[in-house]
């Protein structure tokens, strides 16, 4: 996003008459200082826009200083995924894989999801499995998945029957009409009071991830608006200070 800033014409003419060389130098300094101030403001606003779990995103907000031969300063994020947070859009899985939406894998909003808790890693552990969701958002059996129109090749695998989905199957599960998820078995077996397993002892399960072919991302970063606001307010003052210092120290 390009943001153009300018000086009052009278102030600019006065600076150019005094010293064109120092005016260009001061412009480069002012642009760099303004970008630094905008960078600080973007970082300060991150907790208002996101749940911050680590300092990674904040450290990724960088600037490219201006130079005499390039009167342009840039505020940017080094992280490619932040571009979608600025503009919004659809996030799709890579190479045809599903996008995992975390549910109970994070016990609190500020918790970091480490690689050992990512979907692929969880499915390598015996207490986790992939299975479809029912229309009520609970565990779906193979039978009611077929009724919902899911693929028979996947529907025939019942996790409660002892057969788990493979990792490769979980990557393609979300392509069907029935939503798939990653679940965890935990705790001691409990006697069920209703449903098809009423009277039997079953191990409780909890929903860790919901798998989807794509998710919509709302624009939340607001970097362009923040940088524009800071630039319009601060550039002129930064230029005046930089030019005065340049003239005072000129040889």
Account of the 3D structure:
The chain has 251 residues and is α+β, with helices and mostly antiparallel strands. It has helices at 9-18, 20-49, 56-59, 82-87, 119-122, 142-147, 152-155, 167-173, 223-249; strands at 61-64, 74-77, 89-92, 99-102, 128-132, 180-185, 190-191, 201-202, 205-212, 214-217. The strands form four sheets. A four-stranded antiparallel β-sheet has the order 4-9-6-5, covered by helices on one side. It has a two-stranded antiparallel sheet with strand order 1-2. α1 (9-18) packs across α2 and α2 (20-49) packs antiparallel against α9.
Number of helices: 9
Overall form = rod-shaped
Order of adjacent strands in the largest pleated sheet = 4-9-6-5
Q: Termini separation (Å)? A: 38 Å
Order of helices and strands: HHHEEHEEHEHHHEEEEEH
What's the SSE blueprint?
Blueprint: H1 9-18, H2 20-49, H3 56-59, E1 61-64, E2 74-77, H4 82-87, E3 89-92, E4 99-102, H5 119-122, E5 128-132, H6 142-147, H7 152-155, H8 167-173, E6 180-185, E7 190-191, E8 201-202, E9 205-212, E10 214-217, H9 223-249
Helix pairs in contact: 1-2, 2-9
Quick tags:
single chain, 251 residues, 4-stranded antiparallel beta sheet, two-stranded antiparallel sheet, 10 strands, 39% helix, rod-shaped
């Amino acid at each position: 996003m390009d943001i153009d800033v300018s000086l009052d014409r009278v102030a600019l003419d006065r600076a150019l008459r005094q010293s064109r060389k120092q005016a260009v130098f001061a412009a480069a300094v002012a642009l760099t200082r303004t970008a630094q101030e905008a960078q600080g403001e973007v970082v300060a606003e991150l907790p208002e826009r996101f749940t911050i779990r680590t300092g990674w995103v904040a450290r990724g907000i960088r600037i490219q200083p201006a130079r005499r031969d390039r009167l342009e300063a840039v505020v940017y994020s080094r992280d490619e995924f932040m571009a979608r947070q600025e503009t919004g859009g659809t996030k799709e899985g890579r190479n045809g894989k599903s996008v995992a939406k975390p549910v109970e894998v994070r016990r609190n909003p500020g918790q970091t999801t480490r690689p050992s808790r990512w979907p692929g890693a969880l499915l390598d552990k015996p207490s986790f499995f992939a299975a479809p969701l029912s229309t009520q958002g609970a565990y779906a059996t193979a039978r009611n998945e077929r009724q919902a129109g899911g693929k028979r090749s996947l529907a025939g695998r019942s996790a409660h029957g002892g057969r788990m989905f493979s990792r490769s199957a979980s990557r393609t599960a979300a392509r069907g009409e029935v939503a798939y998820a990653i679940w965890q078995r935990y705790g001691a077996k409990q006697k069920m009071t209703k449903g098809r397993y009423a009277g039997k002892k079953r191990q409780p399960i909890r929903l860790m991830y919901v798998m989807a072919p794509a998710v919509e991302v709302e624009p939340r970063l607001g970097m362009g608006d923040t940088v524009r606001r800071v630039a319009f307010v601060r550039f002129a003052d930064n230029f005046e200070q930089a030019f005065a210092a340049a003239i005072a120290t000129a040889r």
